[in-house]
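Weekly structure sync, notes
Attendees: PL (lead), two postdocs, one rotation student
Agenda item 3: pending single-chain targets
PL asked that the sequence for the first pending target be pasted directly into the notes so everyone works from the same version. It is reproduced below exactly as submitted, 207 residues in total.
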Amino acid sequence: MKKFIAFILFLILFGSGIVHGQSKPVGSYYSLNWNISVPIGDFNQWIAPASFFGFSATGRYFLVDGFGLGWHLGYNNYYEKDNYETYYFDGGAISAAHYNYTYMVPFKMDIFYHYKPASLVSPYISLGIGGNYQENHLLIQDMDFYENTWNFILNPELGTVIRFDKGSSWGVRLGVGYLFTTAKTDFTDLKNFQSVHFMIGIVYTVF
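Predicted structure, written out during the meeting:
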């Protein structure tokens, strides 16, 4: 995971140094992305392993001088199997392994800035604000204890768009970001679920 993080950051910083001049203005671009998400903070106490089952769709629209607004809709599935233990509840007890699941559907609006949007490599910085639908499940044998929540999210991100050729409509998007939510779970009295996510996507640009 550390090597993957270093690779993404290297590409973003490397892209900042080889940006070429623009040939024509960009109107908007759209991307389909694969997201890897690493729980941190309180979230890491609930589920520690990284989630490799995350996807998102994004649209971004340029307004002036590389600045613009966009939308983002995503999905992430987190899972961890815990140890074999005895659990006590009203009316009895049960000895079994348990499974923790969290499903997130974040949706947000982005404010962003791209450096030379039409260049071969275009680094960007963005801030996303929106909401999140979340399900937390605690499974013990055939019993499923769960809760559904709606919460607020804040998502700063750093990344770059790399086109397959100068002036090409197609390219790849790389990004790394931090996701803060106001989500809470009564299972273990956790709050403020947080994660660091890494994104790689396919981009289509409308000039």
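Discussion points:
- The CA atoms of residues 93 and 182 lie 32 Å apart.
- The two ends are 36 Å apart (CA to CA).
Action: rotation student to compare against the earlier draft before next sync.
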